[in-house]
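Continuing from the previous page...

OK, I double-checked the sequence for 1,4-dihydroxy-2-naphthoate octaprenyltransferase against my notes and this is the correct one:
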Amino acid sequence: MATPKQWIEGARPRTLPNAIAPVVVGVGAVRELGDVTWWKAVLALLVAVALIIGVNFANDYSDGVRGTDDDRVGPMRLVGSRAATPDAVKRAAFLCFGIGAVCGLALAITTAWWLIVVGAVCIAGAWFYTGGKRPYGYIGLGEIAVFTFFGLVAVMGTQFVVSGRVDWIGLVCAIGVGAISTAVLVVNNLRDIPSDTESGKITLAVRLGDKRTRLLFAALVAAPLVVSIVLVIATPWALLGLLAAPLMWIAYRPVRSGAVGPALIPSLGAAGQAMLAWAVLTAVGLVLP
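Thanks. Re-ran it with the corrected sequence; updated structure tokens here:
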């Protein structure tokens, strides 16, 4: 049986900024904090965290039973390392999806019924990323899913449930978060190009190749800085987001230097930290008078 520490590693806590950042900036995009329904913001955060942990366990299970993780370079996987049984990891994934579904249902009942459909699509997207007979993550569509679910849906969804409205500020913030959240997956797949190619997992990085994937990562980590400049239209305080630039450079440095394999792992954590820092700074800038 896996130890508690191994289960925590399997949940991949370094990906939590992908869940927290959209909610933070989604609340900030409301601008008038007096208009925010805070208990809904907490539920939105629980939904996001439950889904990101659920998708991590689901990927662990699906990749593990396919043998994709048998020669893994990155952080440990529970199934691939034989630390936990596939059934146990699958149950953990669906437990997380269930928690997210219950919290999401509460939001839908008190906000808008069609959010139930959105939630169902999110859970299906989380499972079929690497699950099912034809996982879309194996044909290079994972980045589109991350940008959509952890960028557009998460940010604008948060803005909508906590305030009852969505505007251009929420959309622009969603693009910024979606871009750097996608960058986390891109560098992860850049690291795994050799093993993914061998196992038949045709990610976008495999399709683009090493050089073009590094260029894509650079564009994605720079996108939030462009968003900060665009948000000046709403308030000059949005430029606070530019203070996250050093963290983005730290994330880009290993990619720029041509690092491969385990040497790219620091970029994963640094990109997550940069995303969360940018989200917090941008949210603060948006709500300042």
